[in-house]
Design goal:
heterodimer, A: 280 residues, 7 strands, rod-shaped, disordered N terminus, B: 152 residues, mainly alpha, three-stranded antiparallel sheet
Chain lengths: 280, 152
């Protein structure tokens, strides 16, 4: 019975339907939406690369401490991890032990000292002197250094971030578990301002301790995969905008070109006998 | 306002439609719940500045300021989970309108239902009632026709 339908001159092809002003208007809208999505994708892509950008610094060249950091001011990115050298004296009685220090995966103790450096004159600097696995050994070395601190001399090592001042998690509150300049300054016998914000880890430890493992900063380029994933998602959304447009046009075209007899029979046919099986 | 299918889904597709409806229903509820959790999480984080932490130094579950997050960040997990659930919700939406031969506008309406709190539950109820009703009606008609054919 469908064959018997007369050719309708009003009937359009899908292509003609797509070229109608209304369809073209929708296409413009889809284009706009896709453009916005593409711009968002570009933005995410920019973020993904930007977050992975690395500024190469000559951290392995020993520089003067005063050239990379200033006392009484916050630690800058440019100074963190830099090998530095300075001259100064050690304060007797200010050597102490800090627990909970990981060194290549081993938990142990640092002996931490207080140096008065020459640049600028009599500026305090917290120094991680060395590491040991054994608490008693750390205490012994600290006592020895307190009794007879090393004389004047150069102090060379890596300048790193101070830990945040945190309450001691377990044990006696006097036991330190973080190398925090802000906390150490309160424990020093003669608090001196100005103070350097960061902590220096000595390159060569005194007898009885091993040098603190203080590697060069990690400078691998990393792409931000989350942003990259979002960029891909936006591209897919832009494509989806065109698909939605295509479906809009096709749906309307199908609706208008539906075989009137057949469609009626089918849509009304839910209740009418003989209506159920439609063309797939 | 119920949407008329553009073409008529054949009877042999009914089991597929029922499965798709269940798939859609499951994820409409899951996404709806995740969206409500997300709203609470966003208010906590951006208004009160706290995030939910699992197993940190402050106990099993704790609200801690964002800067002091040491344990497992449950707040961030809610964000990821909602993102993935909504993606599956969109897929279930697309499958459903395809097997029902609905126009694409219906897809957009159902998709929008998943981003407004509580709306996905309302949308799901309406869609479910409509499709279940449609299938029952069609099946009743088939039944009637079959009875008429044997009776004649």
């Amino acid at each position: 019975m469908t064959d018997a339908l007369p050719a309708d001159p009003q009937r359009r092809t899908l292509r003609q339907e797509m070229l109608r002003p209304r369809s073209l208007g929708f296409l413009l809208l889809a284009l706009l939406v896709a453009a916005v999505f593409a711009a968002l994708g570009q933005w995410q892509l920019g973020r993904a690369v930007q977050a992975g950008t690395v500024i190469v610094r000559p951290t392995e060249t020993v520089r003067a401490l005063a050239a990379v950091a200033r006392p009484q001011s916050q630690q800058t990115d440019a100074s963190v991890g830099q090998l530095v050298t300075t001259r100064g004296t050690w304060v007797a009685g200010d050597f102490g032990v800090v627990g909970d220090r990981l060194d290549r995966g081993d938990r142990g103790y640092w002996v931490v000292g207080h140096a008065l450096v020459d640049e600028p004159a009599r500026t305090s600097l917290a120094v991680g002197v060395g590491w040991t696995k054994d608490r008693a050994q750390a205490d012994r070395v600290a006592a020895r250094l307190n009794a007879a601190p090393p004389g004047d001399g150069t102090i060379t090592g890596r300048y790193i971030d101070s830990d945040p001042a945190e309450p001691t998690a377990a044990g006696s509150p006097a036991t330190l578990s973080a190398v925090s300049t802000a906390r150490l300054i309160n424990l020093w016998s003669s608090p001196q301002v100005p103070v350097y914000e960061g902590v220096l880890t000595l390159r060569s430890a005194p007898a009885g301790l091993t040098a603190i493992y203080s590697p060069r900063p990690d400078e691998q380029v990393e792409l931000n995969f989350l942003n990259l994933f979002y960029a891909v998602e936006w591209a897919l959304f832009a494509v989806a905008a065109f698909y939605v447009w295509y479906r809009l046009v096709r749906d309307r075209w199908e609706q208008e070109n539906a075989d009137p007899g057949g469609a009626d029979a089918l849509h009304a046919g839910a209740g009418a006998p003989g209506g159920g099986a439609g063309p797939a | 306002m119920p949407t008329t299918p553009l073409r008529v889904p054949p009877t042999r597709d009914f089991p597929t439609i029922r499965r798709s409806l269940l798939f859609y229903r499951t994820f409409a509820y899951a996404t709806g719940v995740a969206l409500l959790l997300l709203c609470v999480e966003i208010v906590a984080k951006y208004v009160f500045g706290v995030e939910l932490q699992l197993g940190g130094p402050y106990g099993f579950l704790a609200l801690v300021p964002s800067s002091q997050m040491h344990g497992f960040n449950l707040s961030a997990t809610i964000q990821y989970v909602h993102g993935y659930l909504y993606l599956i919700y969109l897929i279930s939406d697309f499958v459903l309108i395809t097997v029902m031969r609905y126009p694409i506008t219906r897809f957009l309406v159902i998709a929008a239902g998943g981003v407004v709190p509580f709306l996905s539950f309302v949308t799901e109820r309406r869609v479910h009632r409509e499709i279940a009703g449609y299938l029952a009606e069609r099946e009743a008609a088939e039944q009637q026709r079959a009875t008429a054919a044997t009776g004649a």
